Amino acid sequence: MNVKSKIPVRDIMTTKLITISSDATLAEASKVMSKNDIGGILVEKKGDLVGIFTEKDLVNSVSKGKNPTSVKLKDAMSSPLITIEPDQSILDAAQLMTKNKIRKLPVKNKGKLVGIITADDIVRIAPREIELLLELASIKTGAAFGEGEFKGATRLTEGDCDTCGNYSDNLRRTDSEEYVCNDCYSKEEAEEEE
Questions:
Q1: d(CA 72, CA 178)
Q2: Are strands 179-180 and 172-173 parallel, antiparallel or unpaired?
Q3: Orientation angle between helical segments 127-141 and 90-100, nearest 10 degrees
Q4: N or C: which end of the chain has fewer CB within 10 A?
Q5: pLDDT tens for residues 7-60?
Q6: Residue 95 · residue 105 · CB < 8 Å
Q7: What are the sequence ranges of the domains in the chain?
Q8: Residue 144, pLDDT score
């Protein structure tokens, strides 16, 4: 069974792009990201796109003892960029993200940057495709929905919890079709048992 989404990347990508110089510091990039409520920022040098700086890059840098007010993005960004074309499907984008363990993909058309697509965009727009992929994964691993890991809720992806709003890299789908973090899922289970 081959699952193929007909939804092209161009239909859900963000076209309002925010970029920053590779000579900016981690602290400067973090302020721009916070102000614009984004989890990553495209990095350019003399008008050319050279990388992307994400929350993950910030955490990695700080955890290694790097000073956010003095370290430049060129020394902490993810590079080279992995990109996708706007006519490719959102499942192509999801596959590329999974393969490369990334959550954001710049979109290029004929070599020109035209947008960006995130894992959150795909989850928000294509819940049916994701459910179908989870079902296929369960078939491939021999687990059926309602058994083992999939009992009661399925492991989905990262994003903001529908209950508490906190970010989690392990959201679970509840019976009420909300996506919640493990803490909220455990609380909900405990309340149901009472």
A1: 39
A2: antiparallel
A3: 50
A4: C
A5: 899 999 999 999 999 999 999 999 999 999 998 999 999 888 899 999 999 999
A6: no
A7: 9-124, 126-193
A8: 46
Mean pLDDT (the chain, rounded): 81
Q: Which residues pair with 48 in a beta bridge?
A: 45
Query: In the prediction, which pLDDT does 180 show?
Result: 82
The answer to whether the CB of 61 falls within 8 A of the CB of 72 is no
Express each pLDDT in 71-102 by its tens digit. 999 999 998 889 999 999 888 898 898 888 88
Query: Is the bond preceding residue 106 a cis peptide, omega within 30 degrees?
Result: no
pLDDT of 189 above 90? no
63 CB-near residues (< 8 Å, 6+ apart):
none
Cα 86–chain centre separation? 17
- CATH architecture observed for domain 9-124: Roll (3.10)
Q: What is the mean pLDDT of residues 169-193?
A: 78
Helix (H, G, I), strand (E, B), or coil: what is residue 169?
coil
> Per the structure block, which two tokens stand in for 122?
């795909």
Q: Which residue in this structure is represented by tokens 């508490």?
A: 164
Count the neighbouring beta carbons within 10 Å of the beta carbon of residue 183: 13
d(CA 12, CA 125): 8
Look at residue 5 in the predicted model and tell me its pLDDT: 59
